[in-house]
Amino acid sequence: MTNDKQINELKPCPFCGSIDTYRGECEEGDVIGCGHCNATGPVMEEIDVTVPVTLYSWQSRPIEDTLRAQIAALTARAERAEGERDEAIKNTDIARTIVFQIRDVLQSIDPIIFADTIKNIG
């Protein structure tokens, strides 16, 4: 199923990426091409007026579409991982603060015992 956007807006050239694409006719039938690198899509006679074969061939790029979907999924996964990393850093900072606070409290209670304890741990 196509919509007006798919029919009216050609995808960029699959070879050079230019958006200078065009749709025209030649002796053999309908043709789509690139005004930048002069590549042309398949020249075919139209079979179905609702979805022209040449247009469908130019617009459909299953490998590209699959790769774009995979990139989107990996990008979302990376963003989630970054969020989890940021949360872990935040939790580590909180834990470090608590450890320092406990150290300060222990040291203020009895500096001699605290010093001996730190010697034994280290």
Spatial strand sequence of the major β-sheet: 1-2
The CATH class assignment of the largest domain is: Mainly Beta
Integer-rounded radius of gyration: 32 Å
Which word captures the global form? rod-shaped
Instruction: Give the SSE string.
Output: HEEHHH
Number of strands: 2
Quaternary structure type: single chain
Count of discrete structural domains = 2
Secondary-structure arrangement, i.e. CATH architecture of the largest domain: Single Sheet
Main beta sheet: 2 strands, antiparallel
Task: Specify the structural class.
Answer: mainly alpha
What is the number of helices?
A: 4
Distance between the termini: 70 Å
**Low-confidence stretches at least 5 residues in length (pLDDT < 50)?**
1-6
- Beta-strand content estimate: 5-15%
What would you note in describing this structure?
The chain is mostly helical and 122 residues long. Helices cover 58% and strands 10% of the residues. The chain is built from four helices and two strands; from the N terminus they run αββααα. A two-stranded antiparallel sheet has the order 1-2. Helix 3 packs across helix 4. The longest helix has 48 residues.
